[in-house]
Amino acid sequence: MREHDFGGKRSVFVFLAIFLVGWLAHTTYSTLGSNYAEPKQFEVFEVENSDKLTGSAVVYNAEKSSPNDHIKESQIHVLKDKVIIDVKDASWARFTDTNSMDPIIDAGSNSIELKPKTTEDVKIGDIISYNSEYVDGLIIHRVVEVGEDKDGWFVRVKGDNLAKEDPGKVRFSQIEGVVVGIIY
Q1: Are 66 and 84 in contact (CB under 8 A)?
Q2: CA distances (Å), origin 96, targets 107, 164, 175
Q3: How many CB atoms lie within 10 A of CB 88?
Q4: Domain ranges of the chain
Q5: Binned average pLDDT, 10 residues per bin, the chain of 184 residues
Q6: Which pTM was predicted?
Q7: Domain with residues 73-183, CATH architecture
Q8: Of 182, 140, 162, which is closest to residue 170 (Cα–Cα)?
Q9: How many CA atoms lie within 13 A of 142 on its CB side?
Q10: Spatial separation of the C-alpha atoms in residues 147 and 154, rounded to whole Å
């Protein structure tokens, strides 16, 4: 008489059941998570292929924080021979080629900056220049977070072309300027 070993088959069945439950949980989580993500912006482009058929391509663009308006339209005067930006205490800055803010800022670009008077003058999306304890000289990166902790107000910043935020928190006293214009 032959004995049957159901232990091996049972182990395979348990393994497959656990695998399928994991796969189902991952699929469900991914689907639900994508439905609650930020709304996607999209543009439709007409596309012409080699057979002269026309179709459309959809390109999704997630909304990103842009710099805030620090100069009102009424402060900008475009004349025949010059442009006047009517702001007080503006400073000029030139950039070195670090690639951290590509493609918006590169070597040879110039900017106009204003020294913020209060923390209200610095918002998410603004590009600021600040003194860092990690490098000599000023760093010019975008504000990605504004917060407050036991030491007071701070921002976190990141170069547009960098994968990670800059280390540490930037305090108001470290900020030298808010970029209000980039001139190429």
Answers
A1: no
A2: 5, 20, 18
A3: 5
A4: 6-61, 73-183
A5: 61 74 70 51 56 58 86 95 94 89 90 97 97 90 97 97 95 98 91
A6: 0.67
A7: Ribbon (2.10)
A8: 140
A9: 21
A10: 5
